[in-house]
Amino acid sequence: MKISTLYKDKEKTVLSFEVFPPKKTSGIETVYKTLDALVDLHPAYISVTYGAGGTEANNTGVIASYIKKELGIEPLAHLTCVNNDKLTVERELEEFKSNGIENILALRGDIVPDIEPKKDFLHASDLCSYIKARGDFELAGACYPEVHIEAKSMVEDIRNLKTKVECGAEHLISQLFFDNGAFHNFMDMVRCAGINVPVAAGIMPVTNTSQIQRMVSMCGASLPAKFSKIMQKYENNPEALRDAGIAYAVEQIVDLIANGVEGIHLYTMNNPYVAKRITDAVGSLL
User: Fold this and answer.
1) 154-166 vs 180-192: helix axis angle to the nearest 10?
2) What DSSP state is assigned to residue 152?
3) Are 106 and 124 in contact (CB under 8 A)?
4) Catalytic: which of 11, 18, 70, 239?
5) For the residues 136-151, what does the mean pLDDT come to?
6) CA–CA distance, 285 with 267 (Å, rounded to integer)
7) Residue 94: beta bridge partners?
8) Which residues pair with 75 in a beta bridge?
């Protein structure tokens, strides 16, 4: 099933999750356990990353296949430029095809220190064009409500996003953000630029301070004063911080749905408990 078809019902908000492969020191069964818990929350689809920094690429297809065949949920397999040359992409696509995986999130990918990135695909749009010519895959793309950290301006970033869509991305998932106003403004600019594909808002519930510091340094998301005060007040109380992070994410989602967002993509951080708390809170709104 192509994921874009899920967006045809304009009265519903598409809820999806993201998981990541386990570290090399952990068995793949750990993510299967997470997925077995997430399936009870009935996400429309589940995306599978290449792991932190793109270092665990070899298990993405295996996990996506498990989601498809064992859980009966549509997977969205990540595929990056920095990790893959053309030959590797060809192998990945063959694996996806043989396992019935139809949906791919084409990304530039994170540059990992001390690891030389591949040069066959410099931009996600290049990867989109290449994949489109090699099978009946549907492509998703990433977008950045507060500008990609390497873009010179929002105008340049929106122009690059339009190129990505023209090269084959049929729906988009946003980078995480904590300021809904930034997302709403971004969507106004996206639509004014003639980009009309569905866009899912990426929401990450913050459950510890090291998590937020790491993610903000990687993607450049701004921290509203309200959010920063919550982090500061509860930074030494892990349970309270977790609950406050969940509450903040729920508040974000309620506002987004009220304003007509097409999709909510929850970065679960492989934590079914947090995903369940949020899903229970907003389920009647979807």
Assistant:
1) 60
2) S
3) yes
4) 18
5) 96
6) 19
7) none
8) 46
Average pLDDT over residues 136-142: 97
For the stretch 35-70, pLDDT in tens is: 999 999 999 999 999 754 445 556 999 999 999 999
Distance from C-alpha of 95 to C-alpha of 84, rounded to nearest angstrom: 14
For tokens 């791919």, the residue is 104
Is 18 annotated as catalytic? yes
The Cα 46–Cα 224 span in angstroms is 29
Q: In whole angstroms, give the CA distance from residue 197 to residue 102.
A: 18
Instruction: Output the CA angle 256-262-267, nearest 5 degrees.
Output: 70
Tokens encoding 280: 């229970």
In single-letter form, the type of residue at position 282 comes to V
Q: What are the CB-based long-range contacts (under 8 Å, 24+) for 155-160? A: 158/189, 158/190, 158/193, 158/195, 159/193, 160/123, 160/125
Question: Any idea how long the chain is?
Answer: 286
Structure tokens at 163: 């190129």
Tell me the two tokens of residue 151: 């873009």
Tokens found for residue 162: 């339009």
pLDDT, tens only, 78-90:
999 998 999 999 9
Strand spans (E) along 28-94: 45-48, 74-80
